[in-house]
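From the methods appendix. Each design record in this collection lists the tokenized structure first, followed by the designed amino acid sequence. Records were kept in a plain field format so they could be parsed without special tools. The example shown here is representative of the layout used throughout.

RECORD:
FOLD TOKENS (398 positions):
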């Protein structure tokens, strides 16, 4: 799959811009702050309905505008698809597929697939667990758009359950609320089990690709891995045994694999047990303490966690390896009828040393479409020789 045409209206700094693209490598060159990243952000947003730079839609609208439009023409084999996404300031976003009647924006998920590398990726290693959970969930939705509903259902139930627990903490909790909480426990257990089951399967698919990608980018002296640490295990250990967060990576991995063998129904039962065991603590604190919203994907380098122990270069290599692993997982899906994702490298090469630049360029150069942004052409390795496009204030200089 490749992006043939991109058109933006009132998106970020652009009142209107049109960009024609081709398969292979395209490098967008322009001074810092001129709008290169805005173009890449729009493509990424079309794929995931979220930005890698901000957590809300407001900043995506050009100042003073009440809506923004992203239009894209995607080519997959002999077929082309036109997507339109309207981002609104005061109402729900909506989309169109091949100029059909408006649909929910969520209905566009899975059509445009991207893997985006950006300086913000350092948060995947150095940031808090929410960054790594988001990485997993966005990849889940890219591979299987129905999981957007899984995430939405879980977030809705979690919000309701937390509201009840907060009522207890402020002294407004009654016997009737207790019965209501039992009902929400069942709903949250089921939604949490579905999300956990999907994440555990995904981590198993990512793990071998993460290790091989890290070896490709480095001298191979350290092995890279990932361990999913579930609060379900931590809570079930709360009888005095050592919690999973204190175990060695190998031991924690083995115990996580045990969870991975359970069905959604079995995981649902485990969550119900864990909620009952943690009821007193949750009522005291007014918040849900067990569930996928508090889980962690721990990245491991050698025998130690990458966070806090990896050097700056190792941290970058781990971040790049995670993105490459997601790319390889998507490629695996192409064998069953999917399509190769668009690779986007946004101002990444300026952050890397020469060796990592060349290794990354050699890995990605064979992709169906690679979009790269840079301030100066000198930052781009010669392995990424291809079309150059100059970005100027407010538009493109063809």
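DESIGN:
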């Amino acid at each position: 799959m490749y992006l043939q045409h991109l058109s933006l209206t009132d998106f970020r700094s652009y009142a209107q811009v049109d960009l024609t693209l081709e398969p292979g490598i395209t490098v967008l060159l322009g001074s810092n702050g001129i709008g290169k990243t805005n173009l890449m952000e729009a493509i990424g947003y079309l794929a995931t309905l979220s930005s890698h730079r901000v957590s809300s839609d407001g900043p995506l609208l050009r100042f003073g505008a009440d809506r923004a439009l992203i239009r894209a023409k995607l080519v997959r084999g002999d077929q082309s698809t036109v997507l339109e996404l309207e981002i609104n300031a005061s109402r729900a976003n909506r989309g169109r597929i091949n100029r059909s009647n408006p649909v929910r924006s969520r209905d566009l998920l899975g059509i445009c697939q991207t893997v985006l590398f950006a300086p913000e990726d350092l948060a995947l290693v150095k940031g808090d667990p929410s960054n790594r959970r988001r990485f997993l969930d966005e990849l889940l939705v890219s591979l299987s758009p129905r999981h957007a509903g899984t995430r939405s259902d879980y977030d809705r139930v979690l919000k309701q359950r937390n509201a009840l627990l907060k009522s207890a903490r402020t002294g407004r909790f009654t016997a009737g609320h207790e019965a209501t909480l039992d009902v929400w426990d069942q709903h949250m257990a089921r939604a949490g089990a579905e999300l956990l089951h999907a994440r555990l399967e995904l981590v198993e698919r990512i793990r071998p690709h993460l290790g091989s990608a890290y070896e490709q980018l480095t001298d191979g002296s350290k092995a890279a891995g990932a361990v999913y640490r579930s609060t379900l295990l931590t809570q079930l250990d709360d009888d005095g045994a050592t919690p999973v967060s204190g175990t060695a990576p190998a031991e924690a991995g083995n115990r996580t694999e045990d969870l991975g063998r359970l069905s959604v129904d079995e995981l649902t039962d485990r969550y119900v047990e864990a909620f009952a065991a943690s009821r007193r603590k949750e009522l005291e604190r007014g918040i849900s303490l067990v569930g996928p919203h508090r889980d962690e994907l721990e990245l491991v380098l050698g025998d130690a966690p990458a966070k806090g122990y990896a050097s700056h270069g190792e941290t970058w290599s781990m971040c790049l390896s995670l993105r490459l692993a997601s790319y390889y997982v998507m490629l695996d899906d192409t064998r069953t009828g999917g399509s190769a994702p668009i690779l986007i490298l946004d101002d990444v090469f300026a952050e890397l040393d020469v060796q990592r630049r060349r290794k990354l360029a050699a890995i990605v150069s064979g992709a169906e479409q690679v979009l790269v942004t840079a301030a100066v052409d000198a930052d781009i390795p010669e392995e990424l020789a291809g079309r150059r496009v100059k970005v100027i204030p407010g538009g493109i200089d063809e």
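APPENDIX NOTE: Residues 2-113+339-397 form a domain with the Rossmann fold fold (CATH 3.40.50.300).
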